[in-house]
């Protein structure tokens, strides 16, 4: 449209040029018309006719025709000019409307981005509060004739104690592999770590047939650790290794004396922590692509992941691997693989039986990578 408008304003059309030429020819011809019509015409003109009447009568029609053509051309050019102005106005209106729409869309995106960031950083603040609210009581060794002293461990240090307790349970569980059909050492250990040991043995998720339940032997891990927890508390949290090694199946196990209420479970604190962390990650990943590209989401999640200690990332992985937090990594969500939420996990903190790289190769072998990055590994230790 703009090109046509420029054509109108830049040069005359072929039709206009033809009309001008015709009008010019009529006017020029009018000067020769008296001679032609008096000398060669079949009309008989009187010799005594006034000269003015002769010239006027012969020339005027041709001049009038030329003038009429030029008048028509003038109106036609005015029509074209008006049309051009309308088209220019319409084009300008469309351009203004387009620019306004673009500016409005940009403002909307900026507003949504600001809203997103405000909520994201508020969720990070709440995450920090959740971590700071974590606490566990650690008791001192009993001193004769004095009350049992203790200190309250809070914040990230709690996760270090949690991981040590899980490792102890996992080591003890290794002695119970033959106590029941389908016994899963890792899931059994995490179940006790998360929910706590009890007098009634948990029926594990992979023990779904009746033969597994019938063949459940005594002693069993749940009941034994419940007894250890009770006697350890009665002994004022002293010599945990000694009480564990009194179990019938455990032989020569050396473990750290944590001096806490062991094997009581930590779901009351961890469940809230995991739920909020999951909702924060989901909030970022579910943003529309028009608002946040994949690379932008990864950058925001790097900020969140920077708040997680090594022990937190290990326990987060354990929670998923034990089938407690399946939604972190499944067919619908790829928070561990595509979004690298446990990227900084340290192999040295994992129990020796776990090959974390192979686990995720089996689950999701073709992980998504950021554009422009040839090397974008799943874990930091693979760099």
Automatic annotation (TrEMBL):
InterPro entries: PutAbiC (IPR031709). Keywords: Coiled coil, Membrane, Transmembrane, Transmembrane helix. It comes from the Bacteria. Residues 86-117 form a coiled coil. Pfam families: putAbiC. The chain crosses the membrane at residues 12-37, 57-76. This is Phage abortive infection protein. It comes from Nonlabens agnitus.
